[in-house]
Design goal:
Shape: globular
Strand order of the largest sheet: 1-10-11-12-13-14-15-2-3-4-5-6-7-8-9
Oligomer: single chain
Helix content: 10-25%
Length: 269
């Protein structure tokens, strides 16, 4: 449960489902081809911060920032995305968390080229680095050498940004989209279902949003398949506004706290 809370605090929603997703059948789902929008939904200077609550307790914060680099891949600029998550209040007393994720992604194809993960959770410490060779379709790992990958592979953090590039113009309720994510030295297909549009209210105000649910396996963490819902702003930015999860021993909520450097106006009502 602690790990579930911490992963949500980073805003990288799909990570929690990695051990649940591997054996789910997809034949009965309305799988649709993932088509990126013609215009990128983010840019250098974007900063997002989120407040995480477990029940009524403020458990932690998460921050996501896009930085520029002087690197390029086949003429395309590379962006440096940084995600940090940390516990606070009562949670910080019992289970201190200081996590940092970094990814380097080329603008043209939204493909990762380098991923860094530094975890400090309680007494557990771990560092990991992955180098993605997109030309050779290989990932060079720090512990298991080279591994083959598909051309559309994403890492833990780049998946968050890649999902935001989804073109919603022709999306229909019930459509399911698949992202191949490389997690813990294995490839996992992460599936997310579109449920339409909805207005949500958070402390920052009311926002018109797209509504999504990750396709998960019920019974281990979640009671039902749609116990985790994510609302994403219905605009060019497509930033997560709110995530709510009903788990077997309580509920978790993560909502937008601050945002700046967006590509365009946000869908605030």
């Amino acid at each position: 449960m602690k790990k579930m809370i911490l992963l949500l605090s980073l805003g990288i929603f799909f990570l929690a489902f990695k051990p649940l997703e591997k054996h789910l059948a997809i034949e009965s789902l309305a799988i649709r081809t993932f088509v990126p929008s013609p215009e990128s939904p983010f840019k250098v200077g974007e900063k997002l911060s989120y407040q995480l609550r477990y029940g009524w307790i403020e458990a932690g914060k998460a921050e996501l920032e896009i930085q520029s680099t002087n690197q390029a891949f086949e003429g395309s600029p590379i962006l440096h995305m940084v995600g940090t998550g940390y516990s606070e209040g009562t949670f910080d007393w019992f289970y201190k968390v200081r996590d940092r994720y970094e990814t380097y992604v080329d603008v043209a194809a939204h493909r990762p080229h380098k991923f860094i993960r530094k975890i400090h959770e309680g007494g557990f410490h771990m560092e990991r680095e992955l180098i993605f060779d997109q030309k050779e379709k290989l990932v060079r790992t720090d512990k298991k050498g080279e591994m083959k990958i598909p051309s559309d592979v994403q890492d833990m953090l780049s998946s968050f940004y890649y999902l935001r590039t989804l073109d919603m113009e022709n999306a229909s309720i019930g459509d399911v989209y698949v992202v191949n994510a490389f997690l813990d030295y294995e490839l996992f297909p992460f599936k997310v279902k579109y449920l339409g549009t909805e207005t949500v209210k958070v402390k920052k105000g009311k926002f018109l949003c797209y509504k999504f649910v990750p396709v998960v396996q019920k019974g281990r963490i979640f009671k039902d398949e749609e116990d985790l819902v994510v609302w994403v702003s219905k605009d060019k930015n497509k930033i997560p506004i709110l995530a709510k999860a009903d788990v077997l021993v309580g509920s978790i909520k993560m909502e937008i706290d601050t945002y700046e450097g967006l590509i365009g106006p946000i869908s605030k009502i």
